[in-house]
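Notes from the 1:1 (GR / supervisor)

We went over the backlog. Supervisor wanted to see one worked example end to end before approving the batch request, so GR pasted a single chain during the call. The sequence is below; no edits were made to it. Supervisor asked that the structure be written out right there so they could see what the output format looks like.
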Amino acid sequence: MSNPEPKRFPIGQFDEPEEISDTQLDEYIKTIKNFPAKLKDLIENFTDEQLDMPYREKGWTVRQLVNHLADSHANSFIRFKLALTEDNPVIKPYQEARWAELQDSTSISIKPAMRMLKGIHQRWYHLLKSLTNRHFERTFHHPEQIKDYNLRICLAHYVWHCNHHFAHIENLKNKQGW
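Structure output shown during the call:
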């Protein structure tokens, strides 16, 4: 039996960094800025058949991954704004696997999700560029994980998230020879 972990976590699981330098923070911000265009370049010529192929056995389809990215990054952007405007707010967790099964994730064109990603990432980038180190230390509380997260760590996690799902799609594309 093959090990499913490399297909499930092609770049490895998120490893929370102990420290994030200002230089690394700038790189993370650039990733947020460039991710929608990078994703578009990867999938822009995919057919519906390709979009409806799972990236691994029992995994989400490419269509579901793209919609998940839009949903997840919208939630993250809102969590940033909550942390910047409230004192350690308790965020609302959501059932991302159930969201990925809804019709707007499984059956419609990915164009609306791609437009969402482009808009969210444009706004997120401009917000991130305006933040000071003190802002990046602001936190929110995740009630399911019973943990406070600062925005510096949250940004590192979402850069990993971009790269994680990009690798899912890129590996499928390479495997299929598209």
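Supervisor's comment: The longest strand covers residues 139-142.
Batch request approved.
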